[in-house]
Amino acid sequence: MSDALLHKRFPDLTDSLPYVRLGTSPTPIRRLDVGTGVPLWCKDDGRYGDGGWGGNKVRKLEWLLPEAHRRGARTIFTVGGTGTNWGLATALYGREQGIETVLALVDQPMDDHVRVQLRRLENSGATVHFTHTKRRTLLTAPWLYLRHMRGRKRPYYLPVGGSSPIGALGYVEGALELAEQIAAGAMPEPSHIVTAVGSGGTAAGLALGLRLAGLSTRVVGVVVNDALPLDAPHIVRLAGRAERLLRSRGARFEPTGLRHDDLTITTDWLGPGYGHPTPAAHEAQTLAAQDGLRLETVYTAKALAAALHLDTADFFGAGPVLFLNTYGPR
Ligand SMILES: *Cc1c(COP(=O)(O)O)cnc(C)c1O
């Protein structure tokens, strides 16, 4: 029996949309001391994931890995940067579930964090192809894909970050979990939830899940990637595809009518580009460390910087603000 909240909410999905739990829920919620005016809270999904890596990608894999089995695939083929948390999580949890991982990796700014990540990838059992640039990745992907056919079984192709409609369900589930925690008194209903946007699946899933949960919390997506179109219409389109997927698998509910002005997407914290640290990110990282929270400067420190500056001048009477920690090093 699955203990997914999505299955509890829509029992018709139990067989049509398989699920495997890979972490311990609910993840802890606590008040942070670093806040400037509005009370700042943190839901620590860095703790999520019982295998060798944690964070937001684990929640996506809870739906993606069973879907791979459902399609009869033995291999997942996907793409990422050289420091890819997504590729690493897929390799580690895929291996546990009997699925091989093949990665095509694009260069990103090299630093100690990326070097450590590459070493972890080498030990993860994934097959890694260094395709260096986005253009070369697009050109070679079809060949790599064919090369990793297993007999007549095709790899299951997944986009960057696992942000397919099925991957986005990880944070529909995450939002339902948050709603239960709020109902149980873990925190007051937040006016905003702030998360990094690298490929959009987390923000899209949250936006849809919060609606399904009946919360009016607004998603603030902090774009950290300049290599993909990640504006509000794109995020809402992905949420819409996830919503249609749920319906096509048998869930019955009123259309959420999610619109792109229902969420705030900002590129103000991106700096020079994906993987390039900014002074604001370094500062947020230092503040978070004082509060016992380990962030990195690619995603989460930029998102926290945005959360710290999301002041009440813009959102009069707003709060509390919830920062979603998506980084799960082990
Ligand atoms: C991938 C990632 C994100 C971004 O999530 P998306 O769903 O790709 O937008 C945020 N934080 C960390 C640590 C990540 O690895």
Automatic annotation (TrEMBL):
The keyword NADP does not apply. It comes from the Bacteria. Residues 21-325 form the Tryptophan synthase beta chain-like PALP domain. Keywords: Pyridoxal phosphate. The keyword Transmembrane helix does not apply. Its cofactor is pyridoxal 5'-phosphate. Belongs to the ACC deaminase/D-cysteine desulfhydrase family. PANTHER family: 1-AMINOCYCLOPROPANE-1-CARBOXYLATE DEAMINASE-RELATED. This is 1-aminocyclopropane-1-carboxylate deaminase/D-cysteine desulfhydrase. It comes from Nocardia suismassiliense.
